[in-house]
Design brief:
This protein is mainly alpha-helical. It folds into 2 domains: 2-80; 106-330, Fido-like domain (Fic-like fold). The chain is 55% helix and 9% strand. It has 13 helices and 3 strands. The protein has helices at 39-48, 53-58, 60-77, 91-103, 110-131, 138-147, 156-172, 181-191, 221-235, 241-255, 262-276, 289-298, 309-330; strands spanning 2-9, 12-23, 26-36. A 3-stranded antiparallel beta sheet has the order 1-2-3. Helix 1 (39-48) packs antiparallel against helix 3, helix 4 (91-103) runs parallel beside helix 13 (309-330) and helix 9 (221-235) runs antiparallel to helix 10 (241-255). The longest helix is centred in the middle third of the chain and has 22 residues, at 110-131. The chain is globular and about 70 Å long. The two termini are 21 Å apart.
């Protein structure tokens, strides 16, 4: 496999074309060409290489992904952004995703954008429902949402779960409203169609499985949601949108305002906040479920009136990584 390797020396990037080959039981990795110290130089040098043209062609997607990602990263680093205590070194990478999202993706024709949104939605719906125990596999999700083919030996609840996510997500792409009680309860109600009739803020106490916190007592759910929405309103122009969405998401899950569907509703709201601030949505992958839940737990000792940087740093950096990896894989 051929790929581009970036080496940082005294803060300056240097790019190399690297090949990884199997020789018997061993994997040998070596640099085969120096490509320069900028992405523009990388593009020029790649076009001159003839010896490994076939291997470069096979690895086109990986190489192109690297070039585009680093092209926008170089542009962002040239802006000398103001530091963010929560995002730290992840800030430039997050902003490069936003730059590409708004300058390239949003300018695509509507049909191409719709195809990409559909691809994103399938990956998002599969992962967010899998986190909650949905057993439908990714290829079955594609067949269901693209071709209407119902998977065998799966429950109707699991099928409705995925179909509801598709409907809600595409409705939210057009929604211009702000975060409010009506929006939150409406999203939850639509996600729970044919799944759970208990909609609206809960009026009974719940126990959150494997949680280290106690969810808000039922009589105070509306009060705590009032405080959360007020906090969001006061901080939406003060905090970085990814930080804002992350803290909102954690506090929402801590309140646990519904009898069921809190995780699914919370992850939809997380992406709604990002998109409202012109950032791309993210996929929280089921394969990282244990790390995701642990990162949420780490923040449990932080409250809205005292948001602690050390409590949220693990969660925010994890979510930043999820944005970076899912963005360049899907939206490029």
């Amino acid at each position: 496999m051929v790929y581009i390797y970036r080496k940082i020396v005294n803060g300056k990037p240097y790019y190399y074309l690297r090949i990884s080959e199997k020789l018997g039981k061993k994997t040998i990795t070596k640099d085969i060409a120096y490509l320069g110290d900028s992405i523009e130089q990388v593009k020029r040098e790649l076009s001159k290489i003839g010896k490994y043209k076939k291997e470069i062609h096979k690895s086109y997607k990986i190489i192109n992904n690297f070039i585009e990602k680093n092209h926008y990263l170089e542009q962002i680093k040239g802006l000398k952004l103001k530091k963010d205590l929560f995002l730290d070194e992840k800030l430039s990478e997050v902003e490069s995703c936003k730059l590409h999202f708004n300058s390239q993706f949003r300018r695509l024709d509507n049909l191409t954008k719709l195809e990409i949104w559909k691809y994103f939605l399938i990956e998002f719906a599969f992962n967010t429902t899998s986190i909650e125990g949905n057993t439908i596999k990714l290829n079955e999700v594609r067949n269901l949402l693209e071709e209407g083919k119902t998977p065998k030996n799966r429950t109707l609840r699991e099928i409705y779960d995925l179909q509801n996510h598709e409907k809600v997500f595409f409705e939210l792409l057009k929604d211009k409203t702000e975060i409010s009680h009506d929006l939150i309860t409406s999203i939850h109600e639509r996600l729970m169609v044919n799944i759970d009739p208990r909609t609206g803020y809960r009026t009974r106490d719940v126990r959150v499985l494997n949680a280290r916190f106690k969810s808000t007592p039922a009589p105070y759910v509306k009060t705590d949601m009032n405080l959360l929405i007020k906090w969001y309103t006061q901080n939406r122009d003060k905090l970085h949108p990814l930080v804002l969405a992350s803290i909102f998401h954690h506090q929402f899950e801590k309140i646990h305002p519904f009898m069921d569907g809190n995780g699914r509703t919370g992850r939809i709201l997380f992406n709604f906040i990002l998109m409202k601030h012109k950032y791309p949505p993210i996929i929280i992958h089921n394969k990282n479920r244990s790390f995701y839940l642990e990162a949420l737990r780490t923040a449990d000792n932080s409250y809205l009136n005292e948001v602690k940087n050390d409590s949220y740093i693990k969660l925010i950096k994890y979510l930043a990584d999820e944005m970076i990896s899912s963005y360049w894989d899907i939206f490029l």
